[in-house]
Specification:
alpha/beta; three-stranded antiparallel β-sheet
């Protein structure tokens, strides 16, 4: 979502609403002004950040994470990632996070690289764990934010459970569309950090 930017505030001092995480600027062309790009976990659901190498995925995740009440980082090493996601599932089952104020974000950078080494039963088992967090996490105040370079077959099942997209630079219009964008919103020369968010340039 893109919300109006108060003219008397610096970007670094933007207020963070109780239900929204400010992560950048966006263009409001009809109003001929800038706004703030806001991720609302309860309204937007889980978030998938898609972009090629050097497009700004890690920076986007860091910007979103800085406004969250709590962050659980899913490591890049497969065994550690498995343990972290399993801990999240156990916490959901216990109801540990239900009464925490704000949002807990489970963040995984380069999720396609995390999943790729898993094979056979391990890949299916990890997919089941991620699926549990995607399905049951929001009721406990846990939302998932993951980044990928592209939607490989290994991450397709998880991506189906992630309704929102922040689309950074893609190598082609076809990749942009496959990532969940609309062809009319494709920009072929996005700089690092440039993105399309809810159909608007961010």
């Amino acid at each position: 979502w893109c919300e109006p930017l108060p003219s008397d505030l610096a970007v670094e001092a933007l207020p963070v609403g109780s239900d929204g995480l400010v992560f950048g600027l966006c263009d409001l062309p009809q109003e001929q002004r800038l706004g703030v790009a806001v991720y609302h976990p309860q309204r937007d659901g889980h978030l998938l950040v898609v972009g090629g190498a050097g497009s700004g995925k890690s920076t986007a995740l860091a910007a979103i994470a800085r406004s969250a009440a709590a962050v659980v980082r899913i490591p890049g090493e497969p065994a550690a990632a498995w343990d972290t996601v399993e801990d999240l599932v156990e916490a959901i089952d216990r109801g540990d996070r239900r009464d925490r104020p704000g949002h807990t974000l489970a963040i995984a950078d380069d999720f396609d690289s995390v999943v790729a080494p898993f094979g056979g039963d391990h890949r299916a088992g990890f997919a089941d764990l991620i699926g549990r967090v995607l399905r049951d996490g929001p009721a406990r105040g846990i939302h998932v934010v993951i980044s990928v370079q592209r939607l490989t077959s290994e991450v397709q099942s998880a991506a189906l459970g992630v309704p929102s997209r922040l689309l950074l630079r893609q190598s082609s219009r076809q990749d942009f569309i496959l990532a969940g964008g609309e062809g009319a919103h494709y920009v072929d020369n996005l700089p690092p950090g440039g993105a399309v968010w809810h159909g608007l340039r961010a």
